[in-house]
Specification:
Radius of gyration: 21 Å
Order of helices and strands: HHHHH
Strand content: under 5%
Number of strands: 0
Largest sheet: none
Number of helices: 5
Structural class: mainly alpha
Distance between the termini: 54 Å
Helix content: over 70%
Number of domains: 1
Mean pLDDT: 88
């Protein structure tokens, strides 16, 4: 009898904590993709400062930042985007600004990502030669980023 009660208690405990374990995984995914985007931002800021003249153009540093951006674009980060980790999830409302459309319009997201990757390939090749090419080509990169963010990220 005690063994049966223990089994029932353990079963109920498992059911109650299963959602918590899933939430931790969702939190980890959201945190990982935010960190991923922070690395994009860091490298873009270095390049933007050079393009604006706030810091002196340095070809080597520009090339490293461009290569970092391209590596990020080529990285398979699908594990960071599990279904239902958007801003409408009750446990994630204050943690993410990803719209549910990301998962509803996967082919468009993939197309936009491929466009970003191609743009970064061009940028890594042509955009780091001198300050003028950096400024010109960086606009294309920023436009590619903006295309996805305007459609799939809410303003917080």
């Amino acid at each position: 009898m005690i063994l049966n009660r223990l089994k029932v208690v353990l079963f109920i405990f498992t059911l109650l904590t299963a959602g918590t374990a899933w939430a931790v995984d969702m939190d980890s995914a959201v945190e990982a993709r935010q960190a991923f985007m922070k690395v994009y931002e860091f490298n873009l800021d270095l390049l933007s400062d050079m393009a604006s003249g706030d810091t002196r153009f340095n070809r080597r540093r520009a090339q490293v930042a461009a290569n970092n951006l391209l590596a990020l674009a080529r990285m398979n980060n699908t594990a960071m985007w599990p279904i239902d980790t958007d801003e409408t999830h009750p446990l994630l409302r204050d943690k993410t600004s990803a719209k549910a459309q990301v998962w509803e319009e996967v082919s468009d997201v993939a197309y936009r990502h491929a466009t970003l990757t191609r743009t970064l390939e061009r940028f890594a090749w042509y955009g780091t030669r001198d300050a003028r090419s950096l400024k010109r080509e960086l606009k294309n990169v920023q436009s590619a980023c903006k295309g996805c963010h305007q459609r799939y990220r809410s303003k917080r």
